[in-house]
Design a protein that fits this description.
This protein has a domain of 29 residues. The chain is flat. The two termini are 45 Å apart. The chain is mainly α and 77 residues long.
Length: 77
């Protein structure tokens, strides 16, 4: 019971402290987007890292599945 209370207390404290750790807001947009080469909203690609992250997760999951399958096969022999 004490462990559950301790976990609840730590979780509550993290939630409260987490509210104070806010990041800096975005910069103000340019007043006139046609005056320069700056695009409103920025030019960062949206999905550039997402595909890499998904592929790495797929490779990791495949490797773990293969190891488990191989281990079961060795135990059956």
């Amino acid at each position: 019971m004490k462990k559950n209370n301790l976990k609840l207390l730590i979780f509550s404290l993290l939630l409260i402290v987490g509210q104070q750790l806010l990041a800096q807001g975005p910069p103000n947009p340019p007043t006139d987007p046609s005056s320069g080469n700056q695009v409103v909203g920025g030019t960062a690609p949206l999905g550039g890292g997402l595909e890499i992250l998904l592929l790495m997760g797929l490779a990791y999951g495949s490797r773990k599945t293969y190891k488990i399958w191989k281990k079961k096969e060795e135990l059956e022999d």
